[in-house]
User: What shape does this take?
Amino acid sequence: MATNWLPAAEITSSGRPVLFQNEIESSFLSSVDLECDDLPNFPLLKSGLLILTTHRLLWLPDSSTTTSTSSSTAVAVPLSLVTHIFSTKKSLKNLFHSPRVRLQASLDSRSVVMTVVMRGKGDPDVFLAKFWENWRARAWEADAQAQAQDAGSGSNRGEESGSGSGGFYTREGAVRMVGVSGILRKEQEMWESTDKSLQEAFQDLNALMSKAKEMVMLAEKMRQKLLSGSKPSATNDEEVGSKEEMQDWLLSVGIISPVTKESAGALYHQQLSRQLADYVRIPLERAGGMINLIDVYCVFNRARGTELISPDDLLQACSLWEKFDVPVMLRKFDSGVMVIQNKSHSDEEVFARIKALVTNPDALQTGISASDAAMTLGIAPAMAKEHLLTAESKGLLCRDISPDGFRFYINLFTEINPADVFLVKDFGIYATWVKVTAASRVKVPEPCIGHI
Assistant: This one.
């Protein structure tokens, strides 16, 4: 539960904090205590993860060291409440104590002093420098001004269109935009500005690097407007489909605050693993619960923009999922192919669908290919082939290798009696196969052609 003095911070299923719009992480520190002697009932915040962002100080409990007496709630200290940051003093006494950073904040109209005790690995001077930089930048005020301008532009447009004393001209002498034409003109100017930004961004690689963060924020802002906009009518399927496609495209454009080695330091792979677990949730839903590791590498790097990661970093981040309580896992097939799948993904359900496909009358004669299984399962042919090979190893299917490729058939040997191989029961897959085979051998007489 949230504390009486600090607001609770929302976290994802993988333990990552849910960031505000345009909020970017700057520094990570492990094994950090958050203390405040001025408040008698201040919660016990021990050995947690401290994340410094452009808007807040986030304290997250460490699940591996959380005890029954410690707080299990993530809390936040908004930088807007910080009134002063004390400079550290070098002394002989500090050599025998854990590094500390003291700050003064206004909590519930009370001015209190809080202490950040760093008991883990980390450079306190680097953290303090970034703390000063973020606090002086006051990014939260810029966001508030941008929101106020967005809200004011709509109200000003309404006031100008409804004002009778202003006439058709503004104070600067320009033609006042009123009515539907004014709205269309305003929208046109907005799209022209957006188009200009895109053209500048894609002129060359240097411009793309400098505009990457701006493009990600623009895409996130457009996606939020699409999500908050009014839903179209159910009859207009084309409009619904295009809007959902636009939302999916904008969602894959970029991650606003990608975890980097510079910001996370020694916690880089741990935080990268948690961020990856949050990101692959939507691609997994679209891919049927399983996606190739190579595809994940491509889409995740595309989302990170210029902060690319190496294949080794991706593999190490996926291997850490075993230590965390995340809803995804890394799986390696017998062929060596590695995939990411949901923990709720069931092979038995996939085998049941494959069995239903392979027991069709046509499939009993000709078998099925990886492409046939891919169409039924709604996944890529490469993933479908791995499922078919796994079903073969379980004894469900038999494989035939020909110049045309692999063909898979239902395994009939489990229904054949070794003592009497010619015995055919009245029911079962074997009996169905015998009937289908016998029917296919019956020759259909050719029609007679009369002479004129």
